[in-house]
Amino acid sequence: MTENNDLKKQMILYFIFAACMIGLNYLIQKLNQLVIAPAFCLNYGTIEFFHVLYCSTDPYNMPELMGSIIAVGITYIIKFFLDKFIVFKKTESELKQTSIEFMKYLGFAILTTIENVGIQFLFRNFLNTSLEISFIVALSIGYLTKFFLDRKYVF
Length: 155
Hints:
The structure is a single chain. The protein has 2 domains: 1-89, no CATH class; 91-155. It is 86% helix and 0% strand. It is built from 5 helices and no strands. The chain has helices at 2-44, 48-55, 62-87, 95-126, 131-154. The longest helix has 43 residues, at 2-44. It is globular and about 60 Å long.
């Protein structure tokens, strides 16, 4: 019975932290869009390297892309430590072990992101569902899959 309660508690914490990371990801991207990118591009946008990598909007919106990459990176790192130490209560903090866990965690994150995108694509294009419904279903399935992968193989 306690194993079942532990699983429920882990799932609840895992999904609470996932929701917090979605919010933080959005906040970071908005902060980048409204404050960081304009200030950075105003001060360094005349340098060709920075202009192409971070400030250009032609042919792609690089400030948005870089903001998204930065937000995902920050939230993955934060969520990894929340999951490791709070959700799954691992106390091992040796660098080698933590690095191995993080690489597995990142690998599963990539796989479940592909799963999310695929599910959302199928729902939008073949079932004609709204963006919001496909987004919620895809994220729910992806996070559920990732929870069990993390629980069994990472932590």
